[in-house]
Amino acid sequence: MADGTCSFCGDTTVYFFPGGLCVACTGKAARIRLAETLKQQSNELTAFDASVGTMHAAARRSEMAVAKVQQH
């Protein structure tokens, strides 16, 4: 994420969601994290954001795997 790439797919992106994921790997329901608009959050909220990002990434991985299997 520090280099501007998604932590899951590696695509270059400007907007990051919790967990350092791009919009394609997270889904549109997630909250966009922009460095200039971040407010100080509690540790609990930060941990929750990370867990939601991980959950979305797992769901996205499953969707991508199903699509790949259906192609072959």
From TrEMBL:
Q: What is this protein called?
A: Replication initiation protein
